[in-house]
Write a structure and sequence with these properties.
Elements (H helix, E strand, L loop, with lengths): L1 E4 L7 H10 L3 E6 L5 H6 L3 E4 L5 H8 L4 E5 L7 H19 L3 E5 L8 H4 L5 H8 L6 E7 L1 E2 L7 H7 L1 E4 L6 E5 L1 H13 L5 E6 L2 E4 H11 L6 E4 L2 H10 L4 H13 L3 H4 L1 H6 L8 H12 L14
Parallel strand pairs: 1-2, 1-4, 2-3, 4-5, 5-6, 6-10, 7-9, 8-12
Antiparallel strand pairs: 9-11
Length: 305
């Protein structure tokens, strides 16, 4: 098969590319950086340097592919319009190239409005644009929250020995690892289901209290505490870090949605996904190693998006 991937050498593709090459497929990897060319070649794939918002470039790379893998990447000061624009670019390029099979990395929350899930709702615009394609098999892969988001706690742990969140410690949350996403994506690229489908990916679920207790043991820090802050405090902290107010607002709404899992995970529950292999206990060991400076392994757990 001829397979074209967006995502360069990101932390999902680092697993997907070798798996596809090993299986004997011709894999083209789109990257915006010339610096990635040699690394992509070493993996046995074909590098294609260009921009994901360049419609003619994408059309050329998609033409002749049996299946393509799409994803939204990068941070924009105007993520809403960026998502809308990217959706149209994907739609036009895949249509012009005559693509018949698509695997799109979306997100949990893509089925819900902005006022309920904040920035996660922007993935809806990608899904909506691609859904206009007729006689094309498309699977929207919707991962839950990445384990890697928890690395943002490291600075606060070192400074104040606290885990800080707007989500109470007793609320159960869903987490996912890039390894489990990669396994799902690889399987779908090799056998894309007929029609338009949604596939959720979850590795494990846990409360903040369970994460706290795991870190207390891993870091040998029994005094570590879990502190709940307000949405206003969270948004103010994001703005202080340099995030535009409109973007900070979207992230605050997104985090707030996790306080009502019966709503935020409703569609996920309806699809009844099987849990992946990477459990919270596995991630806590990685977290500990990164915290102690023993490894840069955190780079291997951070999402492309």
């Amino acid at each position: 098969m001829k397979i074209t991937l967006l995502g360069s050498l990101g932390h999902i593709n680092q697993y997907v590319i070798p798996a596809l090459v090993k299986a004997g497929h011709e894999v083209t990897v789109i990257t915006h950086s010339d610096k990635r060319v040699d690394q992509i070649k070493k993996l046995g794939a074909i590098p294609a340097v260009g921009s994901m918002d360049d419609e003619p470039f994408l059309t050329k790379q998609f033409t002749g592919a049996d299946v393509v893998y799409l994803m939204l990447s990068g941070m924009s000061s105007d993520p809403l319009n960026a998502a809308k624009t990217q959706g149209q670019v994907f739609y036009q390029a895949t249509k012009a190239a005559g693509v018949k099979n698509i695997v799109d990395l979306s997100s949990i929350g893509a089925d819900r409005p902005y006022e309920m899930v904040g920035t996660l709702s922007f993935y809806h615009y990608i899904e909506d644009a691609l859904s206009q394609l007729k006689d094309v098999n498309i699977t929207f892969v919707r991962p839950v929250g990445f384990y890697s988001n928890l690395f943002s706690s490291i600075a606060m742990i070192k400074q104040q020995k606290q885990l800080v969140s707007t989500i109470p410690a007793d609320i159960k949350r869903e987490f996912v690892s890039p390894q489990d996403i990669a396994e799902t994506v690889t399987a779908l690229l090799l056998n894309t289901p007929k029609g338009h489908n949604v596939r959720y990916v979850v590795s494990d679920e846990a409360t903040g209290q369970e994460f706290l207790e795991g870190l207390q043991k891993e870091l040998n820090m029994p005094e570590l505490k879990y502190v709940t802050i307000t949405d206003e405090q969270f948004e103010a902290a994001l703005i202080k870090q340099g995030m535009p107010k409109s973007v900070a607002e979207g992230f605050t709404i997104m985090t707030k949605s996790q306080r009502t899992p019966e709503e935020s995970y409703a569609d996920l529950r309806a699809h009844q996904p099987k849990f992946g292999k990477v459990k919270l206990a596995d991630f806590i060991k990685i977290f500990g190693a990164v915290y102690r400076g023993e490894t840069e392994g955190h780079a291997n757990t951070i999402a492309d998006k």
